[in-house]
Write a structure and sequence with these properties.
There is one protein chain. The protein is mainly alpha-helical and 246 residues long. The protein folds into 2 domains: 141 residues, no CATH class; 97 residues, no CATH class. It is 70% helix and 0% strand. The chain is elongated.
Length: 246
């Protein structure tokens, strides 16, 4: 499914959690968390909606490599004596420069996400917030996995829900694990409706479970996605209204 459809389904799932689960207060941040979680599995795709948002520094990654190359070259020229050591630094500088110059958008975005994830993980360690470090590890590693492999599994959903559980314990924010886990799972359920399906139990079972209704990106597929989102929204709205008693 398209990222916009995943986001819509995640937000609707958040409304369902907030409006129907006893003991979970209605929370706009919780609904937003469910929407964010619904986009998280596609961090394994460099062109996904969330990858583009979190990889905000991608345009600077290439220039950072080039700047590093220039810095190493300048250091070796100004501070080192001619010889083997200086030549080695020149080779290293040339390597950094070539990597930076040849880096394409997808690879730059992966590195930007890696740096974003590592920074988040370090911040979590510094603040003694394990859930934040787990989130950082996910953001850092997911872009380097194959699309619809590790992040599109029941194990990844459980990992994400567990990070939400730890956040709930540390922050005292009731329902975080449900918002996070349900939002993440909504992505897997939605992708199960596509022709490619989802390998829920990968790598233990390398079988794609699917109800092949939607061809992502096609005109009919787009119509079906909108129809599913609208139907799901009406269902949740009806259940919430019924529970409130209007």
């Amino acid at each position: 499914m398209r990222g916009s459809s995943h986001l819509a389904i995640g937000l609707i799932t958040g409304v369902a959690i907030a409006g129907l689960v006893p003991g979970v207060p209605f929370s706009l941040p919780g609904i937003a968390l469910a929407g964010f979680s619904a986009l998280a599995p596609d961090l394994d795709h460099p062109e996904s909606r969330l990858s583009q948002r979190l990889g905000f520094a991608q345009h600077y990654v290439r220039w950072a490599f080039v700047a590093t190359a220039l810095g190493i070259g300048a250091f070796s020229y100004l501070r080192l004596h001619p010889g083997g050591g200086q030549r080695l630094y020149y080779v290293i500088a040339l390597g950094f420069g070539l990597i930076g110059a040849g880096m394409q958008g997808g690879s730059a975005r992966r590195l930007a996400l890696l740096f974003t994830g590592l920074a988040t993980g370090v911040a979590g360690l510094y603040a003694e917030q394990v859930w934040l470090s787990l989130l950082g590890a996910f953001v850092a590693l997911a872009p380097f996995t194959n699309h619809r492999s590790w992040t599109h599994t029941v194990w990844a959903a459980a990992f994400w829900a567990y990070a939400g559980y730890l956040a709930e314990q540390h922050l005292g924010w009731r329902g975080v694990a449900l918002f996070a886990g349900a939002g993440y799972a909504s992505h897997l359920v939605a992708d199960t409706l596509t022709k490619a399906g989802v390998r829920w139990l990968f790598p233990a079972v390398n079988y794609a479970f699917k109800v092949p209704l939607i061809r992502t990106g096609s005109a009919t597929g787009n119509v079906l996605e909108v129809s599913i989102c609208a139907g799901y929204a009406l269902l949740v709205l009806g259940l919430v209204i019924g529970r409130i008693g209007f």
